[in-house]
Amino acid sequence: MGEQCNWIKKTQQSFHPVEVTKGLWIVPEWGAPPDVQATNIILNPGLAFGSGEHATTKLCLLLLRRLIKGGELFLDYGTGSGILGIAAIKFGAAMSVGADIDPQAIKSAHQNAALNNIGPKKMKLHLVPDRTFTASMNERVDGVVEDLSSHKIRGISQTEKYDVVIANILLNPLLQLADHIVSYAKPGAVVGISGILSEQLPHIINRYSEFLEDILVSEMDDWTCVSGKKKRVKEDH
User: Which PANTHER family match (predicted)?
Assistant: First the structure.
């Protein structure tokens, strides 16, 4: 028990406040915000991805800060710790929806939302069924998940609903699920894609050019974030 307590303490000591950019900080639950006037995202990363220290998380936060003007609906596809959903609300989005295949991520995101005084009406979290999760298909996580056996998850079953969609996951699911990820965005809405190494960029550009236009690329520490506007379907006259 003593060793476990020491491990937790050491882990906490290794996680310091992170300044993503001027006026935007990621602050551990057990720390004090260095700038109380800044936008401070309070986080206990737990076992879920998204402590704010990874380049892809920072790139997505910078993209979100640019895109959210106020009143948007935001979808965080692969929510991890919930950091992007929390940031979107703090930037002025009307609602965030986070989806993940990992029950631990949903639990972590739920706890982190509470740390930032964001309730379930503002930030909805959904555990999405995955073929690898047959054992946990019908579990409930903190009462947040209603029905895991159906692929029509309440809250994210509607396509073409969201003003901003970001997927910060891994290369293979980004390639395999491209049409599914983009389907949730309104025509003309911005879709952000990250979790990509710079050397993997051509694969992503090639795959997403079918769905997105005005594509932009930002880079940090050999990682990239791709964003573009969802193409509008041209009607035949």
Answer: ELECTRON TRANSFER FLAVOPROTEIN BETA SUBUNIT LYSINE METHYLTRANSFERASE
Q: Whole-model pTM?
A: 0.84
Total structural domains in the chain? 1
Q: 90 lies in which domain range? A: 49-130+153-230
**Which tokens go with 58?**
């920072």
Tokens in use for 236? 């035949």
Q: Which tens digits make up the pLDDT trace of 10-26?
A: 665 667 889 999 999 99
Query: The dihedral of CA 17, 19, 22, 23: what is its sign?
Result: negative
Best CA proximity match to 167, nearest among 233, 88, 227: 227
| Structural domain contains residue 122 | yes
Q: Domain for residue 6, yes or no?
A: no
* Contact between residue 113 and residue 123 where contact means Cβ atoms under 8 Å apart: yes
141 within some domain: no
CA-CA distance, 222 to 201, in Å (whole number)?
10
The string of pLDDT tens digits covering residues 47-97 is 666 667 889 999 999 999 999 999 999 999 999 999 999 999 999 999 999
Burial of residue 96 (number of CB atoms within 10 Å: 0-12, 13-18, 19+)? buried
Pairing type for strands 24-28 and 18-21 reads antiparallel
Per the listing, tokens 């609602």 go with: 95
Assign residue 90 the CATH number of its domain.
Answer: 3.40.50.150
Look at the block and give the residue holding tokens 């079953």.
157
